[in-house]
């Protein structure tokens, strides 16, 4: 165990954790907004896949990681239009539509990628990392936090912005009311459908940017089914954070660490089965749920379509 | 007066049969409606995927022909499809139990894989010591128990604290998948070289085959389970209780049902059926659990079960269709040089069109009159032919 806390091991751990946490954090942030507004977005994984695919193509053809991330956000937002039309406007079952979106996204992105590149997986080489002078020299965290793509800072800033928006603005109040008591929001003269539409679109955009980060910056390429359950983890994180979005950062970092710990342990020469390590974050969640279950709380109108005048 | 009433009689008489036949046609439509409701989205999904195929430069007719040919029209294909159907039907049955009670068991894959890993790991030695018949039966029970046990934590969290079961089943799903791999790479690892896997169950010791085919008795078991499930859900108090719990938990509480107990029962039965599916698949199809094996059947069954509106009999038809698509699609996608994930496009589209068809149906029902269609007919039949009980009561004193 003496090798565990050496500098290269910790550096690899933090670097891997930051890379792995970003997509989950962005998607969980989006899901938080959507859940606060009463829409349980089970298709999050699908939106991330669309974002990853669109983001990769944007970065590949436009030769810019920023445009790629933008394309990812737009791709995710377009796919969330399906949720908007079917679940918010037509008030169909959110879980069924979410599962459909997920399956469809898996199939379509894999199909399109196959039709485009065959069995080749072209890479994006120039991702535009920025090295902050001096700060990047800090041991352990310097390399991973200050020699990275600047979108990381933007993402963290976004979490604080969303926190401010949910807590301090009337839009945030409307969003939370749409999830808690849509009838009251309606009576107050705010359009529930429009509020929820905004929330789902924002969720799709954030999930798409998360997916784009995954393909452009974390992996450098798009492979079919590359999200590997990140979207579902993000749903769980959003539920555990209960609308307190700062928790999303901490929880996402925890998941990032457990996803990157196997590489770090290999560096340290400790051989633990990757299956055991992959199991840990989920087991942690279950233990937390069993221990603190009484505190789990979800918006009362979550996953319920709003019908005006219905009691 | 008589002259006035006289022409009235045929006038009144003529619409009567027309009304009758219209009603008959209406009844026929009402009977066919669920079938129509189910077929329209299938057709739309096939057409939409066909357009997508054409867009990326494949001939959709060739593709669908290849699916049909390889999944249904060859001896080998149809036998494979029926075998696959056994596995999928049991999963679908497990989902129906939970979904009927409005419990979102989305952890089917974890339950399935864990049960499969236990069964595959234990089967060779258990079957060797207990003999084929008893050994296989015991292993199927083991699969059921493992699957059911894997739902205990979500059921507990849901029943006691109301924790959303989507989170807990998804978490248990990932844990189950990892745990199955740990088991296969650890305690159940075979001594033979090659990919990490469990000991292989001899072909002679697997589930018995039907006649001269390659189809094992899993399909008989699966169909029997689905029929029993349909009976339980529609004709027994337990089925009614589960449906009441699913439709309205507060009503269930007011009726004096015990929602906590029903939650445990529904989750347990769901996991048991999914575990049984894992056992049947291992004992009949594979004979051994390979590390990192995950066909993800559980998630694919969710849309099908909804398409059949949680009706066990309807599910049999859809799972049959899906098995053909999956088996035939495997070869068809390879021949057309497409990723096998293309089948997911078909399933996703199917689900979208299904929900939209449902929406159209509800909108049409809302636009029709307030008076239910059967009401007028009901009054007439009640007058024309009184119920046997009422008739007897009236005749008694006379």
Question: What descriptors fit this protein?
Answer:
heterodimer; A: 311 residues; mainly alpha; two-stranded antiparallel ribbon; 12 helices; globular; B: 398 residues; 17 helices; disordered N terminus; disordered C terminus
Structure description:
The complex is a heterodimer of chains A (311) and B (398). In chain A, strands 1-2 form a two-stranded antiparallel ribbon. Chain A has helices at 7-36, 44-62, 65-89, 94-117, 141-146, 151-168, 170-180, 182-187, 192-219, 230-241, 246-267, 274-292, and strands at 130-131, 147-148. Chain A is globular, with a radius of gyration of 20 Å. Chain A is an all-alpha fold and 311 residues long. With 398 residues, chain B is an all-alpha fold. Helices cover 77% and strands 0% of the residues of chain B. Chain B contains 17 helices and no strands.
Could you describe the largest sheet of chain B, including whether it forms a barrel? none
Structural class of chain A: mainly alpha
Shape of chain B: globular
Overall pLDDT level of chain B: 83
β-strand percent of chain A reads under 5%
Largest interface: A-B, 49 and 50 residues
Strand content of chain B: under 5%
Number of continuous helical runs of chain B: 17
Oligomeric form: heterodimer
Structural class of chain B: mainly alpha
The shape of chain A is globular
Indicate the percent of residues in helices of chain A: over 70%
Task: Compute the CA-based radius of gyration of chain B.
Answer: 26 Å
In short:
The complex is a heterodimer of chains A (311) and B (398). Chain A is mainly alpha-helical.
Topology:
The complex is a heterodimer of chains A (311) and B (398).
Chain A: H1 7-36, H2 44-62, H3 65-89, H4 94-117, E1 130-131, H5 141-146, E2 147-148, H6 151-168, H7 170-180, H8 182-187, H9 192-219, H10 230-241, H11 246-267, H12 274-292
Antiparallel strand pairs in A: 1-2
Helix pairs in contact in A: 1-6, 1-7, 1-9, 1-10, 1-11, 2-3, 2-4, 2-9, 2-10, 3-4, 3-9, 6-7, 7-9, 10-11, 11-12
Chain B: H1 2-13, H2 15-55, H3 60-73, H4 75-100, H5 108-130, H6 132-149, H7 152-161, H8 165-185, H9 218-235, H10 237-247, H11 249-254, H12 259-286, H13 297-307, H14 312-335, H15 342-367, H16 374-384, H17 388-395
Helix pairs in contact in B: 2-15, 3-4, 3-14, 4-9, 4-12, 4-13, 4-14, 5-6, 5-8, 5-12, 6-12, 7-8, 7-12, 9-10, 13-14, 13-15
